[in-house]
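Input record (Table S2, row 271):
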Amino acid sequence: MLTHFKCRARFYPRSNIERYDVPDNKVSWDIEFKKYNPPTYTSPTIKGKPWADPEIDAESDFKPKWNNLDGSVNRMSHTGNYTVLNGIPLNPVGRTGITGRGVLGRWGPNHAADPVVTRWKLDHSNRQILQFIAIKRSDTGEWALPGGMVDPGEKVAATAVREFQEEALNTLEASEAEKESLKEKFKDFFSGGIEIYSGYVDDPRNTDNAWMETVAYNFHDNNGSIVGELQLNAGDDAVGVCWVDITSDLKFYASHKDIIDCVLTRHVASN
Ligand code: RP5
Ligand code: MG
Ligand code: MG
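Output record (5-O-phosphono-beta-D-ribofuranose complex):
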């Protein structure tokens, strides 16, 4: 059964709020946990932001369409319909030890996309090793996929490409001419993404009422002739970027290791 660990760490990210301790056998909402008394936390940094929902309270005229496409905001979960208890969505995986939204903008699912750009490398014994492009996150310092949030109305596959270009190529600081040339050169490569995962992410920012979900796409350069031309340059919320050999002992942000393992399995099986 799906469970989560990273969103049960003692302290909520970017705060000194301590989560209520949820033992492994009390994660599921189906298991009674009478003592469960999590703190409520919604970071002041998200309040009033255009990308964030308002508070849910008696006076509010905020009437979201849970489990539906709500205008241009996708409030559907990849995991199926989630429960809404007293007007508030419940994390489909279970308890996290904290209620409210933390630093996440949306109640319920917060949708992201993750690009996994891969190529083969030959090691000293001429064995093929799959490599992917990882970024170092500025918030936690962990290595991660260069993913990001889906803008309202944006196609998820387009988010994956945009976030890759912003975080791994720093296009936010590129000139229009540079962006145009990049678009032209890599048009086919970035239109050939294969969906490899869609679902819940065990993100440290998740709460009982707000959580991350993603769709991950693999952009694979089988003979390595295309991606060699990519000028890696960390941008936006990334402070480092590089090619990383996919080996079993690697640790990554959230549940990105599981996504990377899916990509590896797929390529090893078809190689
Ligand atoms: C993770 O957070 C997703 O898998 C994606 O990589 C990322 C999106 O959040 P930001 O990078 O925009 O903070 O859960
Ligand atoms: Mg980003
Ligand atoms: Mg990001």
